[in-house]
Every structure is written in C-alpha cells, then in structure tokens.
Amino acid sequence: MEFFQKHHSARGNSASTTPLGPVESRDFIQSYLNENIDYVVQVTITAARSRIYMNPRAAMAQLTVDHNRVRRAIGNRAPFKTWVVVTGGVNVGIDAFSIAFACDELVIK
User: Fold this and answer.
1) N or C: which end of the chain has fewer CB within 10 A?
2) Is 20 helix (H, G, I), strand (E, B) or coil?
3) Are 64 and 80 in contact, with CB atoms under 8 Å apart?
4) For range 71-96, the mean pLDDT
C-alpha cells in the first residue's frame, strides 16, 4: 500500500479488486482517459483460475478502437496502446502494484 499511496493516490488514482464486466471495465477506464494518456495496462487473473480474464480483453479491444478514433479526431496521431496482463498470482493486487512500479520506472512507449 505504501507504493500505491506514494505514487498513485496523490495523483487521484484509486484501486479496486471488484471483477467488472466488459462494458463496466471499459467505461471505468474510459472515465480516466484524456488526450495525454498513451497507454493502459490492465491486470487480470489467469484463465486457469477464472473466465474473468475475458472481460478485460473484450474491454481493451473496444477501448482501443474507440479511444484511437477520438485521438485522431483531435489531431493526435500517436497510437494509443493497451495491454491485458494475465497473472498466475494468487493476489492480483500485488501483481498490479509490481507492474505499475515497472511501468513508472520504464515509461512504456
């Protein structure tokens, strides 16, 4: 939690572990998007544990199409990238923090 509070909560981000459907997932992520966001990483549980992993995949596919269309309409030609990271970990939240830390350090482009 210290990493989250230090690096993300101060930016107005929040954390949730509630499984969302594809439309809910897309809408939640879309509510945080703006023209300055170039990528989104979503962490989900492995298919071996649950079919929930299909929800983020469907959400990201639609989000990529929709958001790229909006970006192009306002003149932003840089690609909007999305990734769904499937984790085999028992605690997806801990894996998400690890991925968020890596993204902050590596600055995915």
Assistant:
1) C
2) coil
3) yes
4) 78
Separation of alpha carbons 40 and 104, rounded Å: 12
So what's the pLDDT on residue 44?
A: 78
Rounded to an integer, what distance in angstroms lies between the CA atom of residue 51 and that of residue 54?
6
Give the distance, in angstroms, between the CA of residue 94 and the centroid of all CA atoms in the same chain. 15
Q: Residue 13, Cβ neighbours under 10 Å: how many?
A: 11
Upper half-sphere CA count for residue 55 (Cβ side, 13 Å): 20
Q: How far apart are the two ends of the chain, measured CA to CA in Å?
A: 26
Report how far residue 37's alpha carbon sits from residue 6's, in angstroms, rounded to the nearest whole number.
20
DSSP state of 78: S
DSSP character at residue 74: T
Which spans in 1-109 are helix H?
A: 2-7, 22-30, 54-73, 92-106
Cα separation, 57 vs 63, whole angstroms? 10
Q: Which residue has the tokens 């509630």?
A: 18
